[in-house]
Amino acid sequence: MSGYWFKCAFLFIFSVGPVFAVNGTRIDIYRGAMLYENHCMECHTRQIHWREKKMVTDWKSLITQVDRWQDISGLEWSKKDIEEVSRYLNGKYYHYP
User: Tens of pLDDT along 4-38?
Assistant: First the structure.
């Protein structure tokens, strides 16, 4: 009988586990979107990401600018928050590798 429960638990973990991993990534992207929309949309419009003299030219400069502006705004975001917002912006506007 215990072998039956072990097999059930094993199948459950390996069938559901990948879903949680995928959802964890989605949660990170949604968190980045939420942080950006709650703290940055007040000053940033869509046009800021498309201006001619943009300061973001690659992934590294995107992270640098997100970090810079969160610091100027006094948000005290963690490194993970900065990366999540950068990932969100990259997916929505920039598309850097």
Answer: 554 555 445 544 444 444 445 566 668 899 998 88
Helix/strand/coil (H, E, C) string of the chain?
CHHHHHHHHHHHHHHHHHHHHHHHHHHHHHHHHHHHHHHCCCCCCHHHHCCCCCCCCCHHHHHHHHHHHHHHCCCCCCHHHHHHHHHHHHHHHHCCC
Neighbour count for residue 49 (Cβ, 10 Å): 13
Could you count the other beta carbons within 10 Å of the beta carbon of residue 26?
9
Pairwise CA distance, residues 83 & 60, whole Å: 10
Cβ proximity of 94 and 56 under 8 Å:
yes
pTM of this structure: 0.65
